[in-house]
Design a protein that fits this description.
The protein is mostly helical. The protein is built from 12 helices and no strands. The radius of gyration is 22 Å and the shape is elongated.
């Protein structure tokens, strides 16, 4: 069932030779010095990995690690958590990281360190990351929490949830603090509150 689900996302898996697929997986695991089952788990999340040539994947990983001045093993560990990183162009990843570091006004090395803890930072667009960080920075500002730099404000939650936290604070400023607002507050909580509490609010963001 797991393999069928993967093949529905990557239809060539239905007709490719099991021998070829097994050879790809076995060789890729060997290149990355990991257990075969580890690579299979990653491939089930990112089905093209079953079909990709080990040479191509190894080249991607080796070059990406070089661009980010980290050990190959470090990048492999991150890619196992975010398997699309195995397939992505090092040029694209490097461009994203370099631009993001610029937007956050930090050294590239510092941004890479953050990305090793939150792998989506390697490939998410710099514009998106900056927007999310600014929303959360504003939330902290409204709560009189000091912000050292924008990078520490980066949160990967959906914009509507990040904005809900901001709106919650602004609404509480005009009510009797009826809502408990924190970083886990979701859009639906704000929506439900507004539906059940009539009144006019002056919300300026």
């Amino acid at each position: 069932k797991e393999f069928v689900n993967a093949a529905l996302k990557q239809p060539p898996l239905f007709y490719q030779s099991p021998d070829t697929l097994d050879k790809n997986v076995t060789e890729a695991a060997k290149r990355f010095d990991i257990e075969k089952k580890e690579f299979v788990s990653a491939a089930l999340k990112q089905p093209p990995l079953f079909c990709q040539f080990p040479d191509t994947l190894d080249k991607n990983v080796t070059e990406a690690a070089k661009r980010f001045d980290i050990e190959k093993k470090e990048f492999v560990n991150v890619a196992l958590k975010q398997p699309n990183l195995f397939c992505m162009s090092p040029d694209t990843l490097d461009k994203n990281v370099t631009e993001s570091a610029k937007r956050f006004n930090v050294e590239k090395k510092e941004f890479v360190s953050a990305a090793l803890k939150q792998p989506p930072l390697f490939y998410m667009s710099p514009e998106t990351l900056e927007r999310k960080a600014k929303i959360y920075a504003y939330y902290k500002e409204l709560n009189n929490i000091h912000v050292n730099n924008l990078l520490e404000c980066l949160r990967l939650g959906a914009d509507k949830h990040l904005l809900a936290q901001v709106l919650g604070v602004l609404i509480n400023q005009q009510t009797d603090n009826n809502m408990k607002i924190n970083t886990k507050t979701k859009y639906n909580q704000i929506k439900e509150f507004l539906e059940n509490n009539s009144g006019k609010y002056n919300l300026q963001i």
